[in-house]
């Protein structure tokens, strides 16, 4: 009799596991903004400070993953010191075009400079070769942050999710002239806000590279290394259908609704849907910096008043190919 019970229990467990697997796979095929959350669901702390009075079909929590303590304080401090050092030599303002600038600096050259024909392709694809100090920073980030993120996805899903980093086969298909650089895309960019001006913008598929409507969902992932004491918050508005302006344009939402305001601390990881209008709150460059580690490292003179109030993050875009169950990470 006990053997029969054991067999029944085993059958129930197998049935339940297969049913759970099928449900996860079916959910993955739905084109909604919760897909990545089903893949990366480890220790997520969802921000609940959202405005319930907005006119939108999507709750902010449906487009947001907020994980605390993804990076240690020591790692954040070490990377911040290295970045502040390298920024003196390699920092550039992020440009929308030849005449319009954003409110963020980057350590290196963003892909948009190539697509907007502001630089020759080699200047983006081979940039680490001319920036040895930045290359060392990227090695550390690859080892301690990107690998951890990828491992979390693998551990927290039963599906065979293919993960590609530092490439973009969809863009190569659209622009075959970049095929020789297929594995030389930057995996992420280091963003530095010194005096953010609360530029409200969206990141969408203006170039029609990605089949967003059917197969591919775009996410923005940020890992925060250094935050000012005041300011530097991430603001996300809950509407998407109201916005028709192209990516990177100034957007005036007026008083239509209030954003969700998220105050990350160093070590946090945030993933959100960048088709929602978003901005970084203004910060005072004279404020104290790195509010996670209290600047305990006394061996560096770089966390001084010149760097106080600076917001430093690692940012990448995640392309989730629903049809082929693939994640592509590139910046």
What's the quick description here?
The chain is of the alpha+beta class. It is built from 8 helices and 12 strands.
What does this structure look like?
- Helix 3 runs antiparallel to helix 7 (132-155).
- The termini are far apart.
- This protein has helices at 2-29, 35-39, 73-90, 111-115, 121-125, 127-130, 132-155, 169-174; strands spanning 64-67, 91-95, 101-107, 162-165, 189-193, 216-226, 234-236, 260-262, 269-272, 278-280, 311-321, 326-330.
- It has 331 residues and is of the alpha+beta class.
- The longest helix is centred in the N-terminal third of the chain and has 28 residues, at 2-29.
- The model is unreliable at 12-35, 40-58, 241-250 and 286-305 (pLDDT under 50).
What's the structural blueprint in terms of helices and strands?
Elements: H1 2-29, H2 35-39, E1 64-67, H3 73-90, E2 91-95, E3 101-107, H4 111-115, H5 121-125, H6 127-130, H7 132-155, E4 162-165, H8 169-174, E5 189-193, E6 216-226, E7 234-236, E8 260-262, E9 269-272, E10 278-280, E11 311-321, E12 326-330
Parallel strand pairs: 4-12
Antiparallel strand pairs: 1-9, 2-3, 3-5, 5-11, 6-9, 6-11, 7-8, 7-10, 11-12
């Amino acid at each position: 009799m006990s053997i029969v019970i054991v067999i029944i229990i085993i059958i129930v467990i197998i049935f339940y596991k297969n049913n759970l697997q099928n449900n996860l796979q079916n959910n993955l095929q739905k084109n909604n903004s919760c897909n990545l959350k089903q893949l990366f669901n480890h220790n997520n702390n969802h921000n609940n400070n959202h405005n319930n009075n907005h006119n939108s079909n999507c709750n902010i929590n449906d487009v947001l993953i907020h994980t605390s303590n993804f990076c240690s304080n020591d790692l954040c401090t070490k990377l911040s010191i290295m970045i502040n050092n390298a920024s003196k030599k390699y920092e550039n303002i992020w440009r929308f075009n030849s005449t319009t600038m954003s409110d963020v600096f980057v350590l290196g050259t963003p892909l948009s400079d190539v697509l907007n024909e502001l630089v020759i392709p080699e200047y983006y694809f081979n940039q680490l070769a001319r920036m040895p100090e930045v290359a060392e920073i990227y090695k550390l980030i690859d080892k301690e942050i990107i690998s951890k993120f990828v491992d979390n996805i693998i551990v927290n899903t039963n599906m065979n999710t293919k993960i590609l980093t530092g490439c973009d086969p969809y863009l190569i298909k659209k622009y075959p002239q970049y095929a020789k650089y297929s594995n030389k895309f930057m995996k992420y960019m280091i963003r530095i806000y010194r005096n953010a001006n609360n530029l409200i913008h969206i990141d969408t598929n203006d170039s029609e590279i990605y089949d967003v409507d059917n197969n591919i969902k775009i996410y923005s992932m940020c890992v925060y290394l250094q935050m000012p004491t005041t300011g530097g918050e991430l603001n996300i508005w809950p509407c998407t259908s109201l916005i028709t302006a192209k990516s990177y344009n100034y957007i005036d939402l007026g008083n239509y609704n209030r954003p969700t305001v998220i105050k990350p601390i160093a070590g946090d990881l945030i993933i959100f849907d960048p088709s929602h209008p978003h901005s970084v709150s203004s910060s005072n460059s004279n404020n104290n910096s790195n509010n996670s580690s209290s600047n305990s490292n006394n061996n560096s003179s770089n966390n001084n008043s010149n760097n106080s109030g600076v917001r430093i993050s690692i940012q990448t875009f995640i392309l989730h190919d629903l049809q082929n169950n693939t994640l592509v990470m590139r910046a």
